[in-house]
Amino acid sequence: MNFSVLAARCSRAIPKKLHVAFPLLIMGLLYWLSSLPGTPLPDDPACYAMFYWVPPSVQNALHVPAYAAHAWAWCWAFGAWLRVPVARAIGACAIASAYGVFDEWHQSFVPGRYASLTDVTLDIADAVLGIWLVAWIRSRARTTKPQINIDEHG
């Protein structure tokens, strides 16, 4: 199964009100990650060590998929309440962007971390990117017909 067929199948999934748990889970994960100190502390759990070897430039690059996925998850979850795609997109982008601002503010209280206007701007741009990707995948889903692969051997 290629990516476009998988994306089309996923975009046809009908959200339920319970699916709001998915973007909330992403928010919890982002909060936990931003709560990690910027430098290792002596009493840190051993599992934190795997996060300290990631260079800051890579950490900043990881904002792109994180906030794009966050906005996508809200857009998808809002499908249970809002039927107008523009309303879902605006709401999702607003929540993901506001959470990016909150997350940077939260980081200003974490030892070894600091708030960055660059990160806030990146988070907002990534939320917009996530919404754009949702629209692009949905447009592809409307034009992609489900394919059935039949093995020649049986």
Describe this structure in words.
- The structure is a single chain.
- The protein has 154 residues and is an all-alpha fold.
- Helices cover 64% and strands 0% of the residues.
- The longest helix is centred in the last third of the chain and has 27 residues, at 117-143.
- The model has no long low-confidence stretch (mean pLDDT 82).
- CA-to-CA gap between the ends? 17 Å
Number of helices: 7
Q: Count the strands?
A: 0
Name the helix and strand elements from N-terminus to C-terminus, one letter apiece.
HHHHHHH
Share in helix: 55-70%
Strand content: under 5%
Radius of gyration: 18 Å
Structural class: mainly alpha
Give the oligomeric state of the chains in this entry, treating copies of one chain as homo and distinct chains as hetero. Answer: single chain
Instruction: Detail the poorly predicted runs.
Output: none
Shape: elongated
The overall average pLDDT, rounded, is 82
Give the biggest sheet: none
